[in-house]
Design goal:
mainly beta; 6-stranded mixed sheet; 6-stranded antiparallel sheet; 2 helices; 10% helix; 25% strand
Length: 240
């Protein structure tokens, strides 16, 4: 279905691995907000732009290692890694050298590739051109209906420090009332604090600001917190 740009599948050889994610539950879940309502703020204008880079197989690939959900690769001719790429639900290009071949770009994370597994909607894969050394990267699963998004589970976060690696992350569908919804998109954001203007008027971790604004909108119909969250722009909305 999505992303919204024409993407060509490139046959590549690279390391596919996964890091153990850090679970985090928003600090605002104790505020008494209704967690059973749908998040309906429209984030479609903050999708990543389509990338035009074409990847090529590297000359000094490394052998894959076992990880949580990962497999072991084998070293082929000239050292290329011959491990299979993720079996994505959409056509996605990946980078072998950490510089070229990425699928999309966005101001928040730079060049990146991201997809959902074809076999299960809870497994996703992400690769970033620019490693994030000062924070974890969080992914929040969403379901879209028309031009509206609904978050269906809490953030899942991990450290992304190697731009030649594809990281696997298993998302959770643990929001009450939404466990049976299909994951059709995701919010990607750094687990960092940014200053959010009125009505927040404070520094907040981006995942907490997002979940608070969505729950506040559900309970009160007031979208001002979500407009404030959106105005800072420290997130990527990716639709599969």
């Amino acid at each position: 279905m999505k992303p919204l740009s024409a993407l060509s599948l490139v046959v590549l050889f690279l390391l596919v691995s996964c890091d153990q994610p850090r679970d985090r539950r928003t600090a605002y879940r104790s505020k008494g907000l209704n967690n059973n309502e749908a998040f309906t703020y429209n984030y479609y204008n903050n999708e990543g732009d389509g990338g035009n880079n074409t990847g090529s197989s590297g000359s000094n690939g490394t052998t894959g290692t076992n990880g949580d959900g990962g497999t072991t690769g084998t070293t082929g001719t000239n050292g290329e890694n011959t491990q299979n790429l993720p079996n994505c639900s959409t056509s996605v290009s990946w980078s072998t050298d950490g510089s070229t071949g990425f699928d999309k770009t966005h101001n928040h994370v730079g060049a990146y590739s991201f997809c959902r597994d074809q076999a299960t909607d809870t497994d996703v894969y992400i690769q970033l051109q620019t490693p994030v050394t000062d924070a974890q990267v969080c992914v929040i699963p969403t379901y879209h209906s028309g031009n509206r998004a609904i978050y269906v589970g809490e953030p899942r976060c991990l450290v992304i420090q190697d731009n030649k690696r594809i990281y696997k992350l298993t998302l959770l569908k643990n929001r009450t009332g939404y466990q049976n919804f299909q994951i059709t998109g995701a919010m990607i954001m750094k687990d960092k604090a940014f200053f959010y203007p009125a009505p927040f008027y404070q520094y907040l971790l981006s995942p907490d600001a997002f979940l608070f604004c969505s729950q506040w909108l559900d309970q009160t119909g007031d979208s001002s917190y979500c407009y404030a969250f959106d105005s800072v722009g420290q997130y990527v909305y990716h639709q599969f």
